[in-house]
Amino acid sequence: MSAVAQFVDSELKPNPWTVSNSPELAKIKVSNQEILKIFSQPVVNHMQGMCRFENGFEQLLPLFRGLILLGKPNSLSLIYDFDHAQVFFTFSKTEEKAVVHFFNQIIELLKREVKFKEILSKVIENNRRFQAEQSLLQSALHGVAWD
What is the enclosing helix (H) or strand (E) of 102? Predict the structure, then answer.
């Protein structure tokens, strides 16, 4: 059976993995942008698959790796391909529940990071606009002859 993430676009709902009989591709989205695709399939008593970060989200791979290193299930084995922003994984079917839960936590943290960066980008842009407006206002005030 294949463990595949089936994610809801809503940021408020959890991101459960489900099990299916055929290899599938799961697409993880934040604000209608795909950030990650996960493919998995059964092989004897193991699951194998890959995660690939989409264009523009490759910079999440080091964070993904760091989060994984904080404490992964024992049977989860990963190979990182930083050149192609992808990760290959295998794990024992006996630890499927723990691995699925672990991946859900990691993916939720990645989604929060993307959302945070979106908000931070807007705050920075608004700050730049404010600074530009303040600069124009100061220039206008200094150009006025005061009595």
Answer: helix 96-143
pTM as predicted: 0.71
Q: CA 92, CA 103: separation in Å to the nearest integer?
A: 14
Token pair recorded at residue 102 = 């672990």
The residues near 117 (Cβ < 8 Å, ≥ 6 apart) are none
Q: What is the pLDDT of residues 77-118, one digit of tens each?
A: 999 999 999 999 999 999 888 998 899 899 999 999 999 999
**Per-position DSSP letters for 122-142, written without gaps between them:** HHHHHHHHHHHHHHHHHHHHH
Q: Which of 83, 92, 87 is nearest to 69 (CA)?
A: 87
- Would you state the structure tokens that stand for residue 109, as one six-digit string? 């943290």
Q: Sheet holding 24-30: strands in order across? A: 24-30, 33-43, 46-53, 86-92, 77-81
Residue with tokens 């206002």: 137
Task: Show the tokens assigned to 32.
Answer: 């209608």
> Contact, 25 vs 38, CB < 8 A?
yes
